[in-house]
Amino acid sequence: MTNVIAFNLLSAEGGSLAMAKERDYAFSGRLPGAEAYLQNVRGAARLGWQMLGSSFQATVDETTDAAGLRRVMGHPGALATCLTALLAMAALARRRATSLPALLWLAALLVLPIFNQAWHHYILARYLAPLLPPSFAAMGLLLAAGHADPRAAMPFAAAERRSRSRSGRSILALVWTLVLVLHPIMRIRDFYAGEVAAHKTNARLWQLGEALPAHASAQRPVWLDYELRFQRSTAGGNVYRTMKGFMDAADADYEKVKLDQPPPVDLPAGTWLLLGDARAAELKAAGLDLAPADLGRPLAPAAPGGYGVWEAR
User: Fold this and answer.
1) Is residue 191 part of a domain?
2) Smallest Cα–Cα separation from 44: which of 118, 94, 154?
3) Which end of the chain is more exposed for a tag (fewer CB within 10 A), N or C?
């Protein structure tokens, strides 16, 4: 927690305070008022509930998808997971085994909202992610206690009754463990299925990473649109840097297409250019004869797209 606070309190020379004026989730140099602070605490609690109940997936922006937020927070699996976590942390603290998980959450929910003043977006999840392992450990200890027999020495009849009681607790703990394990597995399955259906994969990048180096030559280098460095990929990088990495790894010949340095209009026929859609339209309007390149198979869908491979004719 201290490194998060220190980062958000850096001076303008350190970059954070200056950049905070352009962002809405970092410390802006002013402490929040009472109303804003309570709103931040509520937002942090909702985000923590999402993360505990969704197993690291807190992706609902409550400012744009209130119905989605209610579905995530009220999902039976999420309710089971979060309530188990709360019960586990409370039980460990009450038995004086350890209060660390509960104290970590309490400190985070009360202190971090002072320095981080917008809890409506998933990017804030990284601040609360370190709290999940202690929470899951507390849940494990609670469930493991369902299998333990607190009394080893007792009369036979009492031992038999205790044995039946212990068997019931063990079955209940086993069933509850299965619920807690299967819930995140189903959430992860649904999440990745949704990502694939929305074409949020790197299929196009891999396809081009194979095709472009194979086509490049010293006589016909591949031209890469330098403006694609602003085109983000689903993995968090940018299209230009990713393609440049593929070309460098294959020791293939390539050139940059810059705004102030367009390629010559007399490019050798068959030269490939990786261009953003808007850039391709500009070059064609400037007299460059371009057509979609034949990659041997259709260009893989991508979201976000907005770029493709063109061939000079």
Assistant:
1) yes
2) 118
3) C
